[in-house]
Each structure stands twice: as structure tokens, then as C-alpha cells.
Amino acid sequence: MAESEDKPTAAELVLNPSNAPVKSHTPGPPESAERQGSEGAAAGFTEVVTGAPVGTVDQFKLRKFFVLRPGTLDQGIKDVEALVDRDADGTILSVWLMAEVDHWNNEKERLAIITDKLLMIFKYDFVMFICEQIQKIPLNFVDRISYGTFVFPKHSLLQREGEGLRVFWDRLREPSFTTRWNPFTHDLPYVTLTSHPVRNISESMKRLCNIEDFRDHLKEAAQKAHSLNPIPGKANGVLVLNQSILIEAYVGLMSFLGNGNKLGYCMARGKLGI
To answer: To 5 degrees, how large is the angle CA 209–CA 212–CA 213?
Structure first.
């Protein structure tokens, strides 16, 4: 959707994201992450936020997200699409704006791309226009997708509203005790995603952040990947379950402070000092 002409022109940051270091984390076989041009599956998501189904106060708070500033999301999508190597990573099928929830209930802003080979999750800085990390999940490794509300252990002090989606790619491997209690680990056989807070600000954002549509697109792409490139000795097919998403965290000061202040998102934080 084209940007409205009555919006004030924002100052553009002239930064070249192609010079930024990118960390790539891939479960299963290693994949390359060279930048190449991509025709892209999604672009033009900036639009005037008028008539949005949120209150005036909530709309003012949402405006603090950098992703809503004119041209910012479009540039972010363009940058991450350029990181997709069409020979190694496949053809882009869809692009999504999501939030990742880690095993300690910390919420973090993410861009996601579904190709015909991979689910790619990008940690992208919408302030500096830099991709800081890529996680690549081969779709033919995905064996289970769970969708439902978030739940915590009985004596946990934490809580989380809304629904989420968890993608598993190794049903035979359970996280060890030390892995579950390490807040910085990436050695988990699953990733948990939920809707971005700006999802209701406009119709285009609603489409880009729709967790149910993301689930359906991911399921279809994973099933095709299983049929085209099956893994020897591994049961083929994707099991989709409607069940609660368990987060095994009990006391999380980091998540309480971080999620409450949206520290996992690129936002305007106000002035520091006088």
C-alpha cells in the first residue's frame, strides 16, 4: 500500500545495511546467508493510521514503535529480502512482522520470511536499518506446529495474554535442564512466535502480523518441502496441533521489566536528561 501524501516527510537515515555483520544460526545443515537481490513477496506496508480500531491513547503509544514510521518497515523488508539467497534459501513466499517469545518469556521484535525451503527469522534493528542475526529453519525438518494460548507452570509468577505459535523441528530431542535454565541459549529445538503489538493499527499491519495466517502459510510450505525433499529415517509430514503453549519459567524479573517497557522492540524511549 502506498504511503499517504499528507504524512510529514521523515528524515531518512542514509545507512548501508549491506556492510553490517550478520550472525546466522541454522538448526540442521548449515546454510549460507549471502546478500543477493530479491524481487520480494511483500512491500509497501506504510500507511496513514486513521480510523484504526484502537483508542486515542493506545494509538499514541503505538506511534512510538519505529516500525510505524514512514518508510521504515518497507526498508526493513527490502533489507531482509536482500539477504535471501534464492539458490540456497529458496524463493520467497511471504513476509511477516512478528514477535518472538523465548523460553524465559522475553518478547522480541522479529521479521520472518517463509521460502519454499526455509523459515527465516530476522533480528532487525529498525533504528539503524541493520540485520543483526538470522535464524534459518529448514522446512523439511519441521515436524510439529502448535497453536494456542500461553500457559505457565502452576507456581509461576509470570503470565502472558494472547495466543502464540510454536514450531518444532526435532521431536526426539528435549532441552536439557541446563539449557532450559540458561536465558541466553539458542540450543532449543523449537521457536515460539506471537503477534506484534501494532497488529491492530491498520489493515495492512493486521495482514502482516496475522498469526493464524502465518500458521497456515507455514504449514502449507512445510508440507510441500517434506514431499519434495524428505529426510531419510525421519517421519514425513507436519502435525498441526491446537494446544496451549507452555513456557517453563517461574520468576522472571528480566521479562517482567523488559516486556512491560517493550525493551525487545525498536521504540522512541523519550529524552534522557534535560
So the answer is: 70
Q: Answer positive or negative: Cα dihedral of 156, 160, 161, 164.
A: negative
Q: Where are the alpha helices (DSSP H) in 115-210?
A: 177-180, 203-208
Cα angle for residues 233, 119, 174 (degrees, 5° grid): 50
Q: CA 185 to CA 267: how far, in whole Å?
A: 25
Q: Is residue 262 left, alpha or beta, with left meaning phi > 0 and alpha meaning psi from -120 to 50?
A: left
Cell readout for 17 is 545495511
Q: Is 40 buried (19+), middle (13-18) or exposed (0-12) by CB count in 10 A?
A: middle
**What does the pLDDT look like over 222-231, one tens digit per residue?**
999 999 998 8
Q: Which residues, 6+ apart, have CB-to-CB distance to 15 below 8 Å?
A: 128, 129, 130
Closest CA to 238 of 170, 143, 166: 143
Nearest to 222 by CA among 244, 239, 209: 239
Q: How far apart are CA 59 and CA 136, in angstroms?
A: 34
Q: What torsion, rounded to 10 degrees, do the Cα atoms 217, 75, 203, 90 define?
A: -10
Q: Which helix (H) or strand (E) holds 58?
A: helix 56-62
Q: What DSSP line would sit under 223-265, residue for residue? A: HHHHHHSPPTTS--S-EEEE--EE---S--HHHHHHHHTTTTS
Q: How many CB atoms lie within 10 A of CB 9?
A: 8
State the Cα–Cα distance between residues 124 and 23, nearest whole angstrom.
11
Q: What is the pLDDT of residues 17-43, one digit of tens each?
A: 344 445 455 555 434 333 333 334 444
Q: How far apart are CA 232 and CA 11, in angstroms?
A: 53
